[in-house]
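Give me the fold.
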Amino acid sequence: MVDQNASGLKSSQQERFPNESAEYRRARNSLLEAEIALRRQIEAVAAQRRALPQGGEVPEDYIFEEGEDARPVRMSQLFAGKPTLIAYSFMYGPKVDHACPNCTSILDALDGEARHVTQRASLVVIAKSPIARIRIHAKQRGWRTLRLLSSAANSYNADYHGENAKGDQTSMLNVFTLKGGVVRHSFGSEMHKGTSDPNQDPRHVDFIWPLWNLLDFTPEGRGDFHPKLQYADSPFA
């Protein structure tokens, strides 16, 4: 068995990369300690999140619209046999010309992950635009697995912070539970309401956004890059 110190690093530190300097390895080992500490902190926060007391009962069994025929579906039906519902509020209201590029970047990735997520929990994407408009955007993006809902005819967005007091749309991740026939709120990504550190966005939904997690591994970092719906130099949308 390989011994580990308090930080979790292997004492032998056998792994090396070709032609790396001693200076690089010392810095990399220091970074690795910080990464292990971060992993532990992420798990500690996740455990704290899971241990939250029971949240408030939803004020009504919201009726959404979905599908080509704009059929009604109640919130209690969205669980599809699972105890938990993950709901992402997508910034695409009826008053804007196009969908939010940031939300679209998130959903481009979640469309591929949805089939995995739904093995454990139900997952829906909710926007304020009419369902036909939402579906047109989804078709343009090539989304195939996300369950898309319109909240145009209910107060869900306002109640669960998918829009502000002015009616402007905001991104929000909410989690709900269903137990004994009662739907309750379990978690909401409220960091966007808190104070951000200098030169940082709220990052309240970064944990589900692969784009930034990948760029954070690069020497250039995130920089001042912002996702777009289309890129002139790319064959992809």
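The chain has a mean pLDDT of 90.
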